[in-house]
Amino acid sequence: MRLNPKKCAFGVSSGQFLGQIVNKRGIEPSPSKMEALRNMLDPRTHRDVRVLTGQITALSRFISRSSDCCKPFFQGIRNNDGNIWRPKQREVFEQLKKCLASPLTLTIPKQGEPLYLYMAVTEIAVSAVLLREENLIQQLIFYVSKCLIEAEKRYPLAEKLVSALLTVKRKLRPYFETHTIIVLTTQPIRTVMSKPDLSGRVTKWAIKFGAFDIRYQPRTAQKGQAQWELYVDRPSNHAGAGVRVIFSSPEGVDLKYSMRLDFLASNNVAEYEALVFGLQLAWMLKVRRLAVHSDSRLIVS
């Protein structure tokens, strides 16, 4: 094996590698790719839209939730009237250009330091961001985003997050192999993977994570962030007594749980059982701040 001198560079302070600029500040996108996307005119044909989404994909590690960003463009392609570029698509495109106008620099982690992972789930995609922390300041390392297929869209929320973690592990395997990954989440991912009655797919996922040092921590609420909301109710149930609770997370995600009572109960008793059930779930979810809503003033007081 011999090196090609024309393709090698030694002792340089900055250089282009795999279409990205690597320097002492970190990793930056290629200026030519950024300029091409910023100067791109509004797409007029399906081919123009595919070129646009391809350029976004090439810069996806620098763009938060790139899959969600591309959704309006694909919706435009599916319009029956042939109008692929509407005000919604134009608005998203302009927001993307503004995002690219600011400096996009990703940092390089130090060997052995713990890294932090945040994940988000929408109806169509899962996204994640990998960070490092230095002097209490979090610095970006990598954005990851993936569109959900139809079967994945029907997963429960916690399973979607486990699937998102698996996607991140596949794309960022070198980071998982050399660093401790701390997953910050409001969902009981560890509990989902440790249940004895797991579905087959979750069992396979849990086994794949066993070779890595992955830790889970509750995602603490930031100052000014909304608290969790708990709604307790006794749904209509002619076969017997049942209760239902709904959690609303600070991110606007609703978690619905129900429980059947083995005895006939009045409305107040049923709502009391629902409240106890909800508080137990809140403890399992490690909820710190919780506002309870109920039709029964007796129960709430």
Automatic annotation (TrEMBL):
GO terms for molecular function: nucleic acid binding; RNA-DNA hybrid ribonuclease activity. Residues 224-301 form the RNase H type-1 domain. PROSITE patterns: RNASE_H_1. It comes from the Eukaryota. This is RNase H type-1 domain-containing protein. It comes from Prunus dulcis.
